[in-house]
Amino acid sequence: MAIGQLEGHLKLSAKIAAILQEVRSSNATHRRKLKEILALRLSSSPAEFCAAFCEALVPLFNFQRRTSSAERTIKFVSSFACSASDKDDPSDEFLENFLRFLLLAATAASKTARFRACQTVSEIIMRLPDDMEVSDELWDEVIECMKIRAGDKIPTVRTFAIRSLARFANDSENRDILELFLEKLPLEQNGDVRKILVLSLPPSSETLSMIIDCTLDVNESARKAAYCVLASKFPLQSLSIKLRATILQRGLAERSAAVAKECFRMMKDEWLEKCCNGDPIELLKFLDVETYESVGETVMSTLLKAGLVKLQDGQTLREFIAPGGDSAEAGHCSCSIELMDAEVAVFWKVVCRHLNMEAHKKGSDAAMTMGTESTVYAEEASHNNDLLDQILPASVSDYVELVNAHIVAGANYRFVSRQLLLLGTMLDFSDVSNRKVASVFLQVLLHKALDHDLDESGNEVIIGDGFNLGGERNWAAAVAELCKKVHAATGEFEEVVLNVVEELAQPCRERTADWKQWLHCLAVVGLLLENTTSFRHMQGNAIDPTEILHSLLLPGAKHSNLDVQRASVRCLGLFGLLEKKPSEDIGKQLRCSFVKGPSTVSIMAAKALLDLAIWHGPDEMDKSMNCDLSSDIHDDAISSTPFEFGDGREDSKFELLDLLCAGLEHDWDDLEEVEDHQSIQDVLGEGLAKILLLSNKFPGSHTSKHHLILAKLIQLYFSSDNEEFQRLKQCLSVFFEHYPSLSIYHKTCLSKAFMPVMRSLWPGINGNAVGSTMMISNMRKIAVQASRFMLQMIQAPLIAKESTSTEENKSENPSVETCPSLDFESEEEGLAVRIAVEVASFDAKKTAAEKSYVAALCKILVLLQFRVSEQGVIKLMRRILSHASTAAAAEKDLTKELRHMAERLKAIDRNPDEQLSSEQATQILEKLELTFNFDKDDSPEAVPTPAPQSIRPRPTRRRARAHQDSSSDDEGSPTSVVPITPAVTGSRSQRASKTAAMSKMAAKTTVKIDEYDDAGSEDDEDEALAEVTSEDDSEASV
């Protein structure tokens, strides 16, 4: 009987296996084979069929590759598990038994079995009909198992486990599943798993923010999934205006075409068609274009390019002008003008601009082609021009009346007025009468005073920024564009504006103007200086540039009103950009405003000084101030003379970079910090970074200070005291990403900046403050991070042409032995010598801070690689390394790593027995601006064999112990494997990278940088006490 049952089981299993084999080939056979396997299930007992079915399915759980045949089998199995042929079909019992089998496989040790089990479970749950009855206990088991698999180490297992739970996440009873998803999403490393997590999130207020954050995901499929979920699960009305603008701003500017297409599909199908009935103006109303103007313009431009904006008959700007509105008095024609909404104004501005651009483009194409193709382009250009003419007002007078009506309507229509001003650049002003009408209108705009109001105390305050015409930059730009369009002849724009300036400046020169008149006059001057290209166009007019400078700008910078000072300083910066050479008067006043002025004026002065330094060069700025540059050419240190910000003394004797760096380090907490969401440190940090980035354009004496400025920026970037300067840190992160790859000179600056940064960050070194054990540990961690970061920048490949030329030079002269290459100081060899000299400068007896510092330096040192072509540097390094090993003799692990490094250097030394002459060593050290004393016997073999150290007459007890340790190590050294090539050393670089960051801070007077050597030894006793207190922490943190 048992034999008969076994034979029946085998036959049934074989039939099922045959069906599964056939469904692998094509989806077309699934319906027919589903009927066959359903018939087999009806003809057998549920337990017997389930056992045979699972047995036939086992080979699939051992098949790892995701082929189309395996996917078809999974699809068929899941469809069968969810199917029932009739009421008598025991499908529910089979489903429960099969799910228990899958749960058992989901806990298997084999990753393939877990993957196939979770995949099958997810397919079954996705296909399961609502009327299928499964016990609650079994569902609880499934959910708990899949929650465990959601944390599996295999990404594909996690993917299908999360997909299995997605159907239960909408149920309020399964709140723990939603919490699991929200917990996993920000921590998940795999992009495909993040995609499934996003697709599985139900719509709610707490999941919305997570989904929108995923629109910035680094994985393209995850970003695309985020827009797909936003389109399908979140109606337009459920999103706030800010979120709508954020979604469209990110999606339409997406670098991936697939993601941008998904965002466009969401905007078109879900938002425009369903919510706005295809009306783009209605869509703009959902976006608040007055606040998010750029987003509204992007949306309209995208819709126009896609051909989704259809203009109805009679839909033009002329419908806002009543038929009888032809009065010449612009102020009395408001009754004939229908005021438009902000969305309508943006709509027409973008439509007209699009038609104008298309007409120019097609006209250019017609001019560049011939024959029929040229005719087609010309017709398209003519059609766009005709359509534009139909939309714009019929005459310039109508246009002026339309704009004037909105200006008179008050501040609520200021945005619409600005949009209409920009439309004026598309009108034709070739006719004299049109220019005359427009010129009168422009005179009104230029003479219009700044709006002001009363504050709570009854004082008058300006509405707007206070230094742009109309109180906002966009309004001033719109007026300037229209003015340049109307007065397009050479010098005509400058002549018209200077006439207005001369009229407004009269009360200012007579000192009868109040602060509001000063601001109005300076706003018009600023508009002129921003939009002219040369003083040549301003000569011979109502007021010349020199008079503007001495009668308006310089007196305004000394005005009692702070807003007038700020506006004057801004104009001084613009004025200096137009000069061929910077003037002494402007330089002195900007320096004075930066040092003595309040924060708002200091920020504006800092911007002006940095702009002029980048435009003219720091050397030219100092020459204009008659600074004696020759005395500091060889003193490559930033002046340590303290600056007293806010006092009344003159600072013209200081060089500009010294002044700016002093401002970067100054504590501005007692002043108002923010100007346009920028602190003074933000402005100075970004400006100094630009100067470093463009260092090849300033070949002067200041280049010797670039590495010190770079050191200050790195120190600021890693300083925990400046965490609030997130904008500056974001800017510096982009700067550091590109800076080392642009030039060999930049890498040289990085190498020279390494030690100053380490000295400034390491506690207890070079006079740095110390504190509690926890504080010292955190400071050391920051220094280690900085050292690793700088090492990565030095190792970054060059993208400039210099790298190619250097490699070609090296290949042409491979026989160079002891002469260093032209770029060794910018590579790892130069940094290694700097670190080794710093380590060797310490005695064997050190404080706790010095011990940890030297250990950190040595750990970085052993990470650095040497090129075989740099034979001279290799020989020099072997000599210095013998002295460096003495300083680190107390650390056995470090001594061992230094010994291995010495062996590596010896292995790549082509003539290991040949000594480097003193002249050659001095030549290399001079290139690195270092000095080192080679008085002691420094044979290259001193590292593995410390015998030469015994010539010292009376070694201390500590040195004797170090000598014994090194000798005992030497006895076992023959058994160690000496690397043959430098590439073998890469495996030791993980642990040592932490030390390298710390080691660069310890360089003392060996490197000639006065800024970090002035600290002296005044607080040595206090430091020693603090260092002894934190000695144990020192040992642990390293």
Question: What can you see in these coordinates?
Answer:
Residues 1011-1038 have a biased composition (Acidic residues). It is found in: Chromosome. Residues 935-1038 are annotated as: Disordered. Helix 32 crosses helix 34 (744-761). The protein starts with a helix and ends with a helix. It is flat, with a radius of gyration of 38 Å. It has 46 helices and two strands. The protein has 1038 residues and is mostly helical.
Largest sheet: 2 strands, antiparallel
Gross morphology: flat
Tell me the radius of gyration.
Answer: 38 Å
In the sheet with the most strands, the strands line up as: 1-2
Question: What's the gist of this structure?
Answer:
The chain has 1038 residues and is mainly alpha-helical.
